[in-house]
């Protein structure tokens, strides 16, 4: 017996169905993984609503998980039955057992439990490429992290602080402000209640910022640009408030020859070697204590719709895991 949360038609959380599905047989290049935990991410909402396209309906939601390999295909050499593994950016995680391309799996160190593994892969590897590759921060940089109390935000704050940065975070409530501070944010700005560019100018003594990490999208885009110093980089890696509408790229020139990028974890980990290196850097940061994965909510997998409502209602902080 196997179960999965599937969407038969795009829409709200009420469209998520707990279906009976067969246990799949791995193809030659696949592994069968029995999940111990599954991660919850905002990208799951995008697939549920149809903002991000799916190959076909019905579709099993979810992009990351951790568990044990139960079987492998004839061509698989990097994992074997019994291995503890984790993965991200592979649609179809909201299920008790699934097959997945084996080259998308990484071995999970014994020191990292399954719930942490499931909670950290997408968000933690996102933080890794943002800080290490998209705009490689250096000690002494002052940076801005939007949604600083969210899953990626908390990791960004901790990791950037460990790398010697001064971190400015934006949050939606006073409670989230305290959480951001506890996780490395030196300054916290309440979104919608304070003038963000003015606060950044005050904090930086007018120098403004070399980089802004923005997962909010439409509602924060122009303020993010206005927080940058000349030649600064705006990294738009999410659309929690909706996609950024079309705009005249001349704005980037007028505001200081700015750089704008829209990166994805899928691109940064498309090659297996990059995936392994990204995960290894994350595992090292977690095992050293520089980054702690905050699992602040846990739901049964069958209650994933409730988890989506909490996520969209901004009632979650840190990471959330679903337990089969």
TrEMBL record:
Iron-sulfur in keyword set: no
Occurrences of domain Enoyl reductase (ER) (ranges): 11-322
SMART domains attached to this UniProt entry: PKS_ER
Gene3D superfamilies: Medium-chain alcohol dehydrogenases, catalytic domain, NAD(P)-binding Rossmann-like Domain
Stated name of the protein: Quinone oxidoreductase
Upper lineage: Bacteria, Pseudomonadati, Pseudomonadota, Alphaproteobacteria, Acetobacterales
Entry-linked Pfam families: ADH_N, ADH_zinc_N
Transmembrane regions: none
InterPro entries: ADH-like_C (IPR013149), ADH-like_N (IPR013154), ER (IPR020843), GroES-like_sf (IPR011032), NAD(P)-bd_dom_sf (IPR036291), QOR-like (IPR047618), Quin_OxRdtase/zeta-crystal_CS (IPR002364)
Keywords from the named record: NADP, Oxidoreductase
